[in-house]
Write a structure and sequence with these properties.
This protein is 45% helix and 14% strand. By secondary structure, the protein is α/β, with parallel strands linked by helices. It has a single domain, classed as NAD(P)-binding Rossmann-like Domain (Rossmann fold). Strands 3-2-1-4-5-6-7 form a seven-stranded parallel β-sheet, sandwiched between helices. The longest helix has 30 residues. Nicotinamide-adenine-dinucleotide (NAD) binds next to helix 1 and helix 6. The site of nicotinamide-adenine-dinucleotide (NAD) has 28 residues, from helix 1 and helix 6.
Length: 257
């Protein structure tokens, strides 16, 4: 495979999950040095082992709880201390969102954990990585918004999730302005991707929900982590050197509908 990310020091959060794992493996195949993390040691270790089985190296710290500033700091300082800079920060970790309609929402148990699990985990990693990204001089932050940052749901109470993802989208635009020209910052907005998160919620496996979602996907299939990883390779590489503050939908055409 061509070495589109040769010499890139890349931090990837959530390497034990679907999209984080897919991006970490794809980045490693393209020559990047990967330092991953996850709160789940077993799934993170599995990704490290999967990489090794392909003859690739993924360095990982696990468990790291990205809602805890000290954990985030420890992970980033270990990586940056070893390599002297960070070229890419891809924030794939997220805590599955709570679904609740506005009249039923529990502020403490549903709203706050969803905002923390979708937005705070991104803010904290960007904050602590910032000086090391600046040290790179041509760094790239890749965050994950969602189709739901743009589209409301007619079926589910998605207020907390839509707001969490819109926060990531807006934050990333601001990071692009504050970071230029040394740091670029972009979002990918996936449609429904088959990952542990969507599988355990039944969204990508339950026949009825799956068919309902597929009916709105012009490409007539759900996404795979590799679909997202190809877009992330472009945004991480110097090929996208003039792309910042952008949002890239990778959704089988949903946003065009
Ligand atoms: N899968 C989809 O259909 C889809 C669609 C739109 C957006 N997204 C976004 O893409 C990103 C990745 O989604 P995914 O489906 O791969 O999720 P996933 O649940 O499969 O993976 C997320 C990973 O983050 C880890 N994690 C959770 N909380 C953590 C914490 N506090 N500290 C460290 N690690 C933690 C989990 O252990 C897991 O390995 C998320 O931001 C998600 O919102 C996904």
């Amino acid at each position: 495979m061509s070495q589109r990310l040769a010499n890139k020091i890349a931090l990837v959060t959530g390497i034990g999950g679907g999209i984080g794992r897919g991006c970490a493996l794809m980045f490693a195949r393209h020559g990047a040095t990967i330092i991953g993390c996850d709160i789940n040691p077993a799934t993170a270790a599995q990704t490290v082992a999967d990489a090794a089985a392909e003859g690739l190296t993924i360095d990982s710290m696990h468990p790291v709880d990205l809602t805890q500033p000290n954990d985030v700091k420890r992970w980033i300082e270990r990586a940056a201390g070893k390599h002297g800079r960070i070229d890419v920060l891809l924030n794939a970790a997220a805590i599955p969102p709570h679904m609740a309609r506005i009249e039923d929402i529990d502020y403490e148990r549903q709203w706050t954990p969803t905002m923390v699990g979708e937005a705070d985990v991104v803010v904290l990693a960007c904050h602590y990585a910032w000086p090391w990204l600046k040290a790179s001089g041509k760094a790239s932050i890749i965050n994950f918004a969602s189709v739901n940052a743009f589209r409301a749901s007619t079926h589910f109470g998605m207020g907390p999730h839509c707001a969490g993802k819109a926060a990531v989208l807006a934050l990333t635009r601001q990071l692009a302005i504050e970071g230029a020209p040394a740091i670029r910052a972009n979002t990918i907005s996936p449609g429904m991707v088959v990952t542990p998160a969507t599988q355990s919620a039944g969204a990508s496996t339950d026949g009825e929900i799956r068919e309902r979602i597929l009916a709105r996907v012009p490409m007539k299939r759900l996404g795979q982590p590799e679909d997202i990883a190809w877009a992330a390779v472009f945004l991480a590489s110097d090929e996208s050197g003039w792309v910042t503050g952008a949002n890239l939908p990778v959704d089988g055409g949903v946003m065009a509908n």
